[in-house]
Amino acid sequence: MISQSDLIIFGVALVFSLFVLPTVFLAVKSLRRSGQMISRLERTKDGPSAGPEDKRTKSVSDIVADLGRRATPGNPEQISQLRFTLMRAGLLGQRAVSIYFAARLFMVVLPQIALLYLVPNLSLIDPMLPLAASLFLAVVGLMLPGMFLSKRTKKLEREYKEGFPDMMDLLVACVEAGMSIDAAVARVSEELADRYPSLALHLKINALELRAGRSRQDSWKNFSERLGIEEASSLTTMLRQAEEMGSSIGNTLRVFSKDMRKKRMLAAEEQAMALSAKLSLPLILFVFPTLLGVLILPAIVRALDLPV
Fold it and tell me: For residues 174 and 157, what is the distance between their CA atoms, to the nearest angstrom?
């Protein structure tokens, strides 16, 4: 028989191995990699020297990256596609692919280790139960990293769409004040760092690419690919056409910014119009039965002549 302490230990180990440990690990590594990448790009103009802090932070990351590198498949197309997916999810570090496969390995192995503790007790219930639980945990462990990336990508896309109109307004203000488009991008990235940190990060990368000598078309194309939203692709196309035709970039940005404000207003109106439809289901399930009971129950009591 399975004791209560065994069930508690199994539940704690399962929750910790499936949710707490992978989530904390990926969140810490993604935040650290994003900050380290920006600092490395900003230090390129001063030289490739590394300080003592870099040496202290390489021990754990090297071990994890080596473990993930061993689990990484050798198919270049699969690795390139995964790197693009990680880039859309905001994981821009050089070792993001290795860390991803290391996380998948941990999420498959750790639940199996926790399951080994309960194999004798589970076998008493059903001999096939340990095998079924092992297969279930393995499938869940393989699927959770992809689900995490998909959820993180959608969250970042919402942030990009919310911050894009504000970014365009700031760009228009900077360009009309006499700044170049390259200097305006660097300035706007500083202004958006507090409210939209992910969008500001991509703008900083765009500014650093322009400062490093990459062409404006290539840098904005990379910017739209990293964001993965329609607004960024439209902005890249408009800037390329304005540069090719020799038209004013300020007028182009002003027209595009006006369209962004209209789209944001239409999106808000759409959400307001859909509110009544979303409230209909809670009203039918919870409010109407309660009102019906309050109105009909006294009449039922009087009709049956029940004592109150």
Answer: 25
CB 201 within 8 A of CB 160: no
Phi, psi values for residue 132, rounded to 5°: -65, -40
Is residue 98 a contact partner of residue 72, using CB atoms and an 8 Å limit? Answer: yes
Tell me how far apart the alpha carbons of residues 45 and 208 are, in angstroms, rounded to a whole number.
Answer: 10
Q: 70 and 34 share a domain? A: yes
Please give the C-alpha separations between residue 188 and each of 56, 69, 211, 234, in angstroms, as whole numbers: 33, 37, 15, 19
Model confidence over 118-162: pLDDT tens digits? Answer: 777 666 667 777 788 888 888 888 888 889 889 999 999 888 988
Contact indicator for 250, 172 with CB cutoff of 8 Å = yes
Residue at token pair 């170049």 = 180
- Rounded-to-integer distance, Cα 39 and Cα 54, Å: 11
Residue 161 CA to residue 228 CA, distance in Å, equals 10
Residue 305: alpha-carbon gap to chain centroid: 62
**H or E segment to which residue 92 belongs:** none
Alpha helices in 16-75 (DSSP H): 21-42, 52-56, 58-71
Q: Residue 211 belongs to what domain range?
A: 159-263
Are 9 and 30 contained in the same domain?
Answer: yes
